[in-house]
Specification:
four-stranded mixed beta sheet, globular, two-stranded antiparallel sheet, 23% helix, 60s Ribosomal Protein L30, Chain: A, 6 strands, alpha+beta
Length: 174
């Protein structure tokens, strides 16, 4: 038995907590949007040589909103957490700052193609989403083996989340 066949068998219908059925069958992705200003995962701070947790009510509220949206999306699509490898795509959208607009409310030419390079850092934004959907859409965030995250300007603050199981046959054998 090849290594790939061994992986397929381990992730097949006999594995606990894995989608039942043909492991080669495409599983539809879970797609949802969370409205509101994306908040990064707060980082512990060091004070006098000790790590101190920073309580952030905005972060707690955002994490809760993401979790609720993930629960609704999972219920609507019949998604159940599995142990299979996953692909996660995150698109964080922020409203443009006022300086991007002219007096008529139109985007100024010099800002028309501007990238969202301001804080917050994209890795902390992604970690917040991954922590919020842990135990809702997957067993552990270590299952995410492909991660795509972007920040961009848009009409409304929020995040678009797409999570999909990866077909084991499509994974390269090392």
């Amino acid at each position: 038995m090849s290594e790939l066949d061994s992986h397929k068998k381990q992730a097949g219908e006999h594995a606990e907590g894995v989608h039942q059925g043909n492991p080669q069958e495409d599983v539809r992705p879970v797609i949802f949007k969370v409205h509101g200003r994306p908040v990064p995962l707060p980082r512990p701070r060091v004070f006098k040589g000790r790590a101190v947790s920073i309580a952030n009510p905005k972060a707690r509220a955002w994490k809760g909103a993401v979790r609720v949206a993930a629960e609704h999306a999972a219920a609507a699509s019949g998604w159940t957490p599995s142990h299979r490898p996953l692909r996660l795509s995150l698109v964080f959208v922020y409203q443009r700052p006022k300086k991007h607009f002219n007096s008529k409310g139109l985007v100024l030419e010099k800002y028309a193609h501007a990238y969202m390079t301001a804080r917050p850092d994209i890795d902390n934004l992604a970690k917040m989403i991954m922590d919020a959907i842990n135990d809702v859409l997957y067993v552990d965030d270590s299952q995410v083996i492909y991660l795509t995250a972007t920040k961009q300007y848009g009409a409304e603050d929020g995040v678009h989340v797409t999570l999909q199981e990866i077909d084991l046959a499509s994974l390269p054998v090392a």
